[in-house]
Each structure stands twice: as structure tokens, then as C-alpha cells.
């Protein structure tokens, strides 16, 4: 989520209307076209012709993931990195992300961020210290951690009083994510890392440095569990605070210590009510070690990735319904692209991190639109879509959940929507959450609908 990219908050000044703005009376909750039964996944599952039919099997998903690594420039293949990286590569990553903002920014109190502060942040990125060649080091993320545009916790915003979208927040990484450690901040407290889907700054105490084989091999350990609820948490563990109540988000995969003796406590607790899992941790020197932890069996987990079916897609998406919108995974939540990525991650499907990359990825089954495509062409395409298909307008992605009387409906993580009420007036609803919407009434502004701005549809299917 680059600073210079058009952001969701900037793009979604409204929702969209069909080519001819559809007027509709909103129910008591004020969301046009949405009735209470439609806020349940079962409503949409019941409308599917073949809800349990497998869309892509495990082999097809693996092939698509390989294709993503091979063809998508936004993805980093850590296993293919050379032993050393040239200065130009690392400096390019850092300067692309940590260039000095050229527009006014405000802090959480609404005060302008001083120019001297911005200059210091650029200096903290420490580009001048990047050597001609840097040996690549590796690490595993040990807890959910923010990725930042600069090596700082400073939150900044484009306008006073609007403190939802922190312009320095890029994304988040989850426990067990491998990273290449390629550069350090001037104060030594931050790594600039390349993760499989993003390159940005992360606080050093969220990463344990290990040997390449240790780091890259963690994801292949068997047997394993996959988190299929919105999140799972390990038990409270006074003996090991670093793995106590650790959050594992949807789609996170963790190894299981299946041979753990049934009568042997784990961190002071009998394991029979939990899964004994293996987590990465930092030792006293910041080095990688693997430690046992207990994941209660009451958490929603699966022994493998879920089968990719329409029913499962809908169930997974609706588990997030009502969650607060979190730009760049802030607020311990997620944004529009994070939302759809984590749904698909629970099936083992990897998607690019940002909407701009996801929308054009050559690894997926894309339908592209240009200005030459009229409204009728776009509507015809929309009415042929199926649950799980992804629709893109600039800065935003939505997932199709079905159709009602020819009207396509979507679930999306959004700041808000706009539409014309029964008097023809444009109405703005501040949602700031994972929400259900009909598509054709939604407006970007008085003259432009979402449908007018659809430029890509991606189908994760054959």
C-alpha cells in the first residue's frame, strides 16, 4: 500500500450506481438493497447451483501459486534470492517505499508533521549506509507485526481529524512468515525486509533471525493445522510470555508436534484439551528457536487447507462480517485486499497483497476492461460472475457473493458507500466495516458509478 497510490479512503468518496443510477429505498438499517437474511452466509449458499463443487483442487492451487511466483513481479521468491544482493536492488526497494512525502501530513492531534521530522525519517531509512553488496539473512516473524513505510511508529494522516488511515501503515505479517533481512535503520531497531508479498520496515523484536534452511523449511513441516476462523489464540502461558495468547489469523499454517508425549505438560499445562503446535520465537540474542505452545481445540482449525468451494468461500467471507475496517491491517483487522487475501489463504491460495497488483496479476484468470467497454458490456460480465470472483475499481476490491433478480451482490471491507435514495439524492453511509452491498446502486460521485470504474475482474478458477 504505497504512500503514493490512490487509497481506498480517497477513492471511496461514495459507492456506485449502475449506468443509470438505480434509486432504491433503504431498509431501517439504511443500507440500500440489503435485507436482514442477506447478512447470513447460508442465504447465499442456498442460492448456489453447486455450493460444494470443488472449484480448484489442491494440485491446481499449487500450480497457480507457482505461476504467481514465476510471473508476478510483486511477489518475492525468497528461495530464489542470491547469497548477496547488490546495492541497487536494496536501495530501490527502500527508496521506492521511503521517499519523502510531498504533501502535508498531520499527527494524531491534528498538528502538521514538521518538515524536520520528515527529513529525519528519510535519514533514518539509512540508504547511504547500504553497501555495494549485502549478504542475505533470514528470519521468521514471531508475532503479528506491522509493516511500515518508514522505520517509525509515528502515525500520520492527510487531514485533521481523520485518523483511520495512517499513511505510514503498509501491511502486516503473521507468525511464521519468512522474511529476508536486507537492511537496518539508522538506530538499529528496524529491519527492512522482503517478505513473499511485500517489502517494508518491521521492528526487529518481531523477527527471529535464523539459518536459511530453518526459516524456509518451517512452512513445510508436517503435520500441520490451518486456522480457518477469523483468528485463533494460543493459551495464556506465564512460563513463555512470547507464545502466550498469540494471535494466529485466518489462513495461518502451523506445524503440529504430533508425537508430543500425552502426559508431558506444555509450559506448565496438560495438553489433552489442546493441539501442541510449534512456533518460532526469539532467544535472548534475537536468534530463532522453535518452542511448543498450546492451541485450544475450541479454536476453528483444520488439518489442512479447506476445499475451495462456493460454500466455503461464502462461509469464510461472512466470518468477518462487521469487522472494523483496518487500513494496512491496522486496528488488528484488515483492509479490502487483506480481507479477500485471508479468505483465499484459508484454501491455500496466495494472492498479491495490494489491489493494484491483485487486479492485474497474470497468474489469475483475468477479465480486463478499458474505457472502450460500455456499461452494457460490463453489466453482462457482472451477471455472469460467480461467488468468489473479485471485482476491482481503482483502490478497492470486492468479492461476489451471488445475485438477486439479476442484481450482483458483493461482500467487501470498505470505509463507506454512496447511492441515490428514493428522492434521487446522493446519500453517503459511513460503514467502516466488512459489509454486504448490491453493486449497481453504488456511486463514486454524482456522475460516476462503481460499474463505470471497474477495470478488472479476477476469477480464481480454471
Automatic annotation (TrEMBL):
Pfam families: NLPC_P60, SH3_6. GO terms for molecular function: cysteine-type peptidase activity. InterPro entries: NLP_P60_dom, P60_peptidase_YkfC, Papain-like_cys_pep_sf, SH3b1_dom. Gene3D superfamilies: endopeptidase domain like (from Nostoc punctiforme) (3.90.1720.10). Belongs to the peptidase C40 family. It comes from Tahibacter soli. Residues 1-20 form the signal peptide. This is SH3 domain-containing protein. Keywords: Hydrolase, Protease, Signal, Thiol protease. Residues 307-461 form the NlpC/P60 domain. GO terms for biological process: proteolysis. It comes from the Bacteria.
